[in-house]
Amino acid sequence: MNKSFLFLFSLLVFFKSYSQEKEEFDFELVGALVLESNQLISYKIEFNSNKNGFIEGYSYTDISGENETKSYIRGYYNPKNKNIQFKESDILYTKSKFLPDEFCFVEFKGEFKESSKKKLLDGNFIGIYDDKDTCATGKIKLVSTKFIEKKIKKLYKKVEKIDKIKKIDSIVKEEIKPENYLKKFSETKINSGEKVSVFVYTNKMKMEIWDYGIEDGDVITILNNNVPILENYTVKRKKKSITVNLTDAENLIKIITINSGKLKTNTTKLKLYDFRRQYEVIADLEEGKEATINVVRLKVKKK
Helices 3-15 & 145-165, crossing angle to 10 degrees? Predict the structure, then answer.
C-alpha cells in the first residue's frame, strides 16, 4: 500500500465517525475495497483468531456513508504462511435501502503481513449475492487502526504548532483532538432524518436508554410503529431499561427529540439486545427532529 493511499485514507477516517460496537479484538484494520473501476469504498474488519486459525468478527462497508453496513465475517488465518481468507454473512445492521437478499457479500483470500510498526492486509476479493451470483470484483487494501491512530496523533501535533502561529477554529481543533477522534472511532451515530435497519431473531427486545453526553435536560419520545412506548422522557445518565414487543416483521422505532436541553443537540444513546447479538447507537438529533431504527425480525434459516 503506497504512502499516498495511506495519507488519503487517514484523512478520510479523520473526518468520519466509525460505526461499531466497542469491543476488544485481536486484529482491527481499516482501508478500502478497490473495485475494478478504481472506485474506493471504505472498509473495515475486526476479528479474533483462535489457536486453530479460525477467525470470527465483523466487517463495516461504506463507513458513515448512506449504505453503511455491518456484517459477520468468518474464515481462517495461517500465521506461518500469512495466508488469510474470510467471507461475510448475516447482516447486523445497514443504512442501505436494499433488501438483505440484494446485498453483495465479500469473499476474500490474500496475505496478512505483520511487522512491529504496522499490519497490512492485501489481496483479491469477489462479491457474491445470496444466490451465489457474482456482483463485484477487486482488491482489499487494509492497514491496522493503531498505525492510523499514530498518524492522527502526529497530525494533531502539527495542528498545535500551526495554532500557535495562526489560530485554528476552536470547534475544528476540538474535533480533531486525538481523544475525541478515538471516541468517534467507536461510535455508531444516527442523525436527524436517518434510518438504520437492524436484524434480530426475537419477538421481544430489551432497550436501554441513557444520556451519552452531559445530562442537560434532553427530552425524547419513542414510538414503535407509531405507538408510544416512552413519552416525554427526560434522559438521564442512569440507564433506563424497557422491553419492546416486536409484533410485526418490520418494526419502525422512531426517536423524537421533544427538547434538546441546554446544549441544543440531543445525544441519547440506545442499546438494543437480541438473544444472539446487541446493537449500540447514538441518536444525535436536533430539537423537533426524529430518526428511525427499523427492527426487522428474521427467521432462523434451516440447514
Answer: 80
Domain count, the chain: 2
Task: Tell me the C-alpha to C-alpha distance, in Å, between residue 261 and each of 91, 188, 212, 230, 256.
Answer: 35, 22, 13, 18, 13
- CATH number where 44 lies: 2.40.128.30
- Note the pLDDT tens digit of each residue in 23-72: 678 888 888 999 988 899 989 999 999 988 999 999 999 887 888 899 99
| Residue 302 DSSP label | P
Q: What is the CATH number of the domain that holds 227?
A: 2.60.40
Collapsed DSSP state (helix, strand, coil) of residue 281: strand
Whole-model pTM: value is: 0.76
Q: Which domain holds residue 124?
A: 3-147
